[in-house]
Amino acid sequence: MSQLQGEIIAAGVPSSNMNSYEEAYQNFNWSDVEKQFSWHVTGRVNMAYEAIDRHVDAGKGDKPALLFSDPAREESYTYEQMQEQTNRCANVLRKYGIAKGDRVFVFMPRSPELYISVLGIIKVGAVVGPLFEAFMETAVKDRLEDSGAVALVTTPELLPRVKREELPLLKTIFVVGDNVAAEPGIADWKSELAAASPEAEIEWVNREDGLILHYTSGSTGKPKGVYHVHNAMIQHYHTGDVVLDLKEGDVYWCTADPGWVTGTSYGIFAPWLHGVTNVVRGGRFSPADWYRTIEKYQVTVWYSAPTAFRMLMGAGQDIIQQYDLSSLRHVLSVGEPLNPEVVRWGMKVYNRRIHDTWWMTETGGQLICNYASMPIKPGSMGKPVPGIQAAIIDDNGKELPPYRMGNLAIRTPWPSMMRLIWNNAPKYEEYFRIPGWYISGDTAYMDEDGYFWFQGRIDDVINSSGERIGPFEVESKLVEHPAVAEAGVIGKPDPVRGEIIKAFISLREGFTPSEELKAEIAKFVKEGLSAHAAPREIEFKDKLPKTRSGKIMRRVLKAWELNLPAGDLSTIED
Ligand code: WT7
C-alpha cells in the first residue's frame, strides 16, 4: 500500500508512564483515571479547580505554573499566583452578572491575561469561547452571534473588530489595556482585577456541564460551535499521562494558540491538570526564537505541528548548533500528516523521535498516537489511546480488514467527545449516522500491526498550516467584493503549509482580470475575515463548474488544479 511500510524507528527511552502499550491497552479502565481527580472524593467538579487550586491545596503553590514570554514581555506565575489572579477574574465576572452557562469569549493574542481569563471564566461555571486573534469583523461577529455570547475579553487593538451595535446580547466587553476609557458596556479588565478580592468561591458544576465552545470549519455553512463539557478533563489527564508522558518535573511547551483546540486541551488543560510548568510564547514564528525558548526554559516536552517542523527544517542545521536543546526528552506533533521526511530529520538533527498524534476539535482530545514506549513507523499516526477503540469502516458501518481504505471511525462514547454542535443538531447527528460510531470525516487504513495511516479528508475542508478552513466561509467573503461574481475555493498542496488556499473567481461585468485586482481581493478577505483564510493564489475564470442545483463543484476545481480526471460529471450544469 505504501512505500513507507517497513521503516521502523525503535521504541523510545523507558521513561514512559506506559511501559508496554499492549499491556496498558488491555488492562485499561477509565475508572482508574477518575480516581486522580479530587471530585472522585468530594463530588465537586470544576476544571479550573483541578488545573490550578488543587495543586495549591496540595502544597505546590510556589511551583511555577506559567512561564510567559513574547518580544515585549517576560513574566512568570506560580500556581498560587494563578489561583489568586483567576479568583480576581472570577469576582469581576460575577460583578458584571456573569453566571453558570453564560458564553464568554476571549479574543486576544497570547498573554498571561488570556490564560487567566480562560480559567476565570471556567471558575464561575461559564462556557469559554476562544477566538483566534487574526479573526476580522465578519468572523468575530458570526461566532459571537451564533453562540449568544454575553461578554468578551479583548484588547484595545482588537476592539474595533467587534461590531457591538450588531450584537445586542453582548452586554460587557472587558478590555485588557492601560487607561481604558470608561464607557457603557466597556470594563477595564486590569483595574477591575486589581480592585477585586483575591479570594473567590468556585462554582461547582456537573461533569456534563459546559466548559468550552470551539468554533471550527466544515465544508458548508458557517463555522460550527463544538461544545465540550468538564468531563473532558478525564481524557486530557489520561493523554497527558500516556501520550505527553508528563512527569512532575517537566517543563512543557505547546506551541499552539488557544484560539484552536490544541492550544486549550493541550496548551492549558492537560499540562495544568498534571501540575507541570507550562511555557507560553507569544509573537511570531522564528526558528532562532523557538530554539532560544527551548534552551532558556530547559523545555523537556515539546508539542508542535508539522508546518512548524517543516519551517525549522527549512531553516537548516547550522542554527541548531547555536542552541543547547539537550533538555528535550519528548517531542510531539499534531494537526496534519507528519511527513516521514520530518521524522527522519528529527532523528538526525535533534536525535529525538517526533511522535505524531491524531485527533480533532470534535474529539476534544488525542485518540490515535505514537507513544514513547512503542516503535514508530514514520508516516503513521500510531495506535489508539488506551480506552479508545478505532476502526476503518465502510459507509454501512462494516469494519474493514487491514490495508483497506475507509472511514476512520471511533467507538462512542469517550470522555472528551463533543456533546453538541451549538444551534445545529442536524450537523451533530451527521457525525453519528452509523450507530455506535463517530465518523471523523478522515479516510485512513490500518496495517497488520494495528497502526493507522492517514489518507485524506472526505469533505472539502482545507488544512493550511494545521488550521482548518472552511471553503464556504472564504467563498462567502469573496463574493462580497464588488468585482467578484462567483468564487470556488480549494486547498492546493504545498510543501511547507500542507495546503494553501486557492480561489477560482469569475468577475462581474465591467471588471478585467489583473494582478492588482488579485492582490486587492486577497487583501479584502484578509481584512474582512482573517489573514489565515486569505487566498494565496487566485485564478480568474469566465465560468465556474456548478451542479444543476447551483453548487460549485470544488472537486472539479481541484482536478483542474492537479491535472487529474474530474470524475463523475453527471450533475454538472452544462
Ligand atoms: C483534522 C482536525 C486537533 C488538533 C488540531 C487540528 C487533520 C489532525 C492529524 C494527524 C493527519 C491530522 C485531520 C483531522 N489532522 N491531526 N496527526 N495526521 N491529519 O484540529 O482543526 O479540528 O482538524 O486535522 O484531517 O480531521 P482540527
TrEMBL record:
The keyword Ligase applies. GO terms for molecular function: acetate-CoA ligase activity; ATP binding. One of its GO terms (cellular component) is cytosol. Belongs to the ATP-dependent AMP-binding enzyme family. This is acetate--CoA ligase. Gene3D superfamilies: 3.30.300.30, N-terminal domain of ligase-like. It comes from Paenibacillus oralis. GO terms for biological process: acetyl-CoA biosynthetic process.
